[in-house]
Amino acid sequence: MSIAQIKKLNEKIPYWMKRPFAGIIRNKLIENSLFQETYQMLCQADKAGQKEKERLQTEKLRETLRHAYHHTAYYRELFDSLRFDPETVTGPEQLEKLPVLTKRTLKERMNDLLADDIADAYLVTTGGTTGEPTKVYMEKKAIYREWAFIYHFWSRYGYDYRKSRLATFRGVDMHGKISEINPLYAEIRLNPYLLNEDNFEQYLRLIERYRADFLYGYPSAIYNFCQIARKKGISLTNRFKAALLISENLYPFQEEMIQSVLGCSVAIFYGHSERAVFAERDERGYLFNALYGVTQFAKDNTLLVTGFINQKTPLIRYCVDDAVTRLPSGGYSVTGHWEREVLHGKRGERISMAAINFHDDTFTLVKGYQFVQDEVGKCTLRVVPERELSPGEIEKIHDRVMKKIGSGFECQVVPVSALTLTGRGKGQLLIQNIKDQD
Q1: Are residues 66 and 101 located together in one domain of the fold?
Q2: I need a surface site. Which of 10, 233, 258, 275 has the fewest CB within 10 A?
Q3: What does residue 194 show for φ and ψ, rounded to 5 degrees?
Q4: Cα dihedral across residues 193, 199, 200, 201: positive or negative
């Protein structure tokens, strides 16, 4: 049974049915040969010198370019027109001979960008920071490679993929439940939408019963968890080995609160749904992992990335909206990633834009969407429809959104002809007119 089938079963069947097979389900990921191969490669690279890491990156780059040329119509046409030969590539700097792959080109040439030798793939849809969905077909084997990179990074904070357990706060549809066990990722999922001062102790008991030794999830959700603990005078010091954060910007006030309440390290990496870039944060800032892909910078400091782990839709010099700034320490800061991301609920709920990023058919008939919040507990969802929406279609969007954001909100869906842009003409997924609720 493939990892994709395991994931599907894992999501659909109740825990009491899969509990006897929890170890088998987990082993489908961590005992997979591709996961093990990737993890061991990363461990060996930790001991290698800079020249050896550069050699490995160039080797992987040539493999990626070679595969793209032989198996996609788009890159075969492009490379031939430029007389670009993947076999002669001796370093990432030669990628500058190629044009930037924009989201528009990705959308318009999608069929020509799909590798013809990989059938086992699935569609990934991300709303991004502009509200216009981006679609990429992901090779299912990429799941193993991706988690090897994540677990390897977490291992620096004491995470052991064979033993450690997560208490996870993410935007997973839990059908109104407060918690559920997910053996595939050795985690107890906790509903971030329902968390408030009244039920905080219930959440804490569930975490303790599961013996989770790491907190994992959105910075805004874990910040809210820590904020409630402080308000209630509940000590969480030394209960967790680290807070493992994903998907959002981490603001200084959030990190200070989390570290102060938990008394442990905070780990965060930067990536995106297209899986073409992976940057790990340490005391120097974000550092881009050279074995995940090649990262270059456009003149406006936005990222141009070439990914290695997904061969179904090769992304070569793919333009990412997020911008970087080089720090004196040698690392980078990343801006634009889920900026202004939190909706505020009437009972203190804090819902991130990452959590409201839809991966289903909710917005099939929508070209773009944008949340606006002027009042705590209320928001408006503006949608730009492909055509006039019927009352039933609007109600369907409303119902899907309410499942995401929960009962702490009232939300009105309003069709519009265009979305509001920033002063620089950029899209905004959330126009937040409420100051942060501390």
Answers
A1: yes
A2: 233
A3: -95, -10
A4: negative
How far does CA 283 lie from the centroid of its chain?
22
Q: Smallest Cα–Cα separation from 295: which of 282, 313, 280, 311?
A: 280
> DSSP per residue over 368-434, as a string?
EEEEEEEETTEEEEEEEESSPPPHHHHHHHHHHHHHHH-TT-EEEEEE-SSPPB-TTS-B-SEEE-S
pLDDT digits 0-9 by tens, 276-302 = 999 999 999 999 999 999 999 998 889
Identify residue 245 by its one-letter amino acid code. Answer: L
Phi/psi for 175 (5° steps) reads 55, 40
Contacts of 157 (CB under 8 A, 6+ apart): 214, 241, 242, 244, 265, 267
Which residue carries 């991300």 as its tokens? Answer: 126
The structure's pTM equals 0.78
Q: Which domain holds residue 17?
A: 3-31+159-240
Residues 311 and 353: beta-carbon distance below 8 Å: no
Which residues are within 8 A (CB) of 421 and not within 5 positions of it... i.e. 6 or more apart? 427, 428
Residues making up the chain, counted from first to last: 438
More confident residue, 353 or 86: 86
Q: Is residue 365 domain-shared with residue 314, that is, in the same domain?
A: no
As a whole number of angstroms, the distance between CA 154 and CA 209 comes to 23
Q: pLDDT of 172-218, one tens digit each?
A: 767 788 999 999 999 999 998 788 889 999 999 999 999 999 999 98
How many domains in the chain? 3
Whole-angstrom Cα distance, residue 136 to residue 181? 29
| Longest Cα–Cα distance in the chain | 67
**190 neighbors 77 (Cβ within 8 angstroms):** no
Are the C-beta atoms of residues 56 and 50 closer than 8 Å to each other? no
DSSP alpha helices (H): ranges in 50-109? 50-71, 73-82, 103-108
Average pLDDT, the chain: 88
Residue 171 located in a structural domain: yes
What CATH number is attached to the domain comprising 396? 3.30.300
Judged on CB neighbours under 10 Å (0-12, 13-18, 19+), 325 is exposed
Query: Which residue type is seen at 114?
Result: L
Distance of CA 47 to the CA centre of its chain: 28
Residue closest to 152 by CA, chosen among 37, 232, 306: 37
